[in-house]
Amino acid sequence: MKEEELLYNIIFPKAEDPNYINYGYFVGKNKRSIDKLKATIKESQLNPILICDGKKENAFFAKVFESEVDRFLKVINEFKFKQLKINRCYINDVKHIFDHC
Predict the structure, then answer these.
(1) Which of 21, 39, 55, 64 sees the fewest Cβ atoms within 10 Å?
(2) pLDDT below 50 — which residues of the chain?
């Protein structure tokens, strides 16, 4: 199994429910890469919710429905964002951030 596929399975576990919500954390080269990503997503039919990391201008959290994960990750890969695993002890904090946006 490729490292990229393994990371994908950790961040976005398989779910049969297309409405299952996945959370991820991504880091790009700079803030401009995030702006380009947002513009591309806006023009697509994808509906992820992105929240920029207040501590890093080139990073963001994402909330993505299972039905859109593959297309979302394809766009992410085109812009060369790196996926970082969210530690289990912080996942409730991440969910809380999205509940208040």
Answers:
(1) 55
(2) none
